[in-house]
What we know:
The protein is of the alpha+beta class. The chain has 5 helices and 14 strands. Strands 1-2-3-4 form a 4-stranded antiparallel beta sheet, with no helix packed on it. A hairpin with a 2-residue loop joins strand 1 (116-120) and strand 2. Helix 1 crosses helix 5.
Amino acid sequence: MALFDAPSPGLGDEDATVPQKATTPLSDPDLVGRVLDYGDDAALSKAATVAKPFARAAAYAQKHRLLGVVPPGLREDAARALLPQKCAAARRRARAGRFARIDLGGDRPTKRFGHSAVAYSGGLWVFGGRDGARYHSDVWRFDVTTTAWRLVDVAGPAPRRAHTATLLGDAMVVVGGGDGRGALGDVWRLALNNEVKWTKVCDGFSSTNSDRPWRAWGHSAVGLEGRDDVIVIFGGASNSGQVFRATNDVELLQITDEKGVRALVHAAEGQPPPA
């Protein structure tokens, strides 16, 4: 909402009287940064005669390039409140915590869904996913400092989507997922420190909730707090052709170098979410 009425021919005059609506003074510098978020320091330097309590007036003036418009009696405070460097700092504070689109350029993963990602040592490690009828098994690392993608040259699991990836210590553990034929139940570990290398942990494991081997896609998984060798898995679905079976089972997987994967017997209390 504009603070001023329509501009008149005398708006640029030094002693012009500018009609204004009653307003509460705006003294928060972060709010100043937000209302002056035009990203034009050169224009802000011309608007240095608009005082902080009238930040909305400054925004209106800048938007309409009426930078000479100043409410009478505010010129002394203006030079201190809206110097370009102060406005720039206020904008930076106001933008903290906002999402921003990054123009990455260079190589990057193809468009996909059903992939996984874990954060480790300043990077985002992405694996797998699906793009239409094509399933992926590539590994990419996004460096959050340089904002650059890198394709990791490492062979490992078969292409898949809707799997889980869980960070355990210095490794990313991938469980299950699905491909064009159905649900998978294998477990893989990708070492992220030193030499990046895939290791197959097992081809599958027995469910503690049924007599069938565990296979699923679309499940969820988290590392057990305080342990770097246990993953908690919930839900998921499997299919035979077009017949799908969802589950609300909970599995606790202990992953070790010596024994591979061991499903831990547990007792879950309460009522689980519906399958």
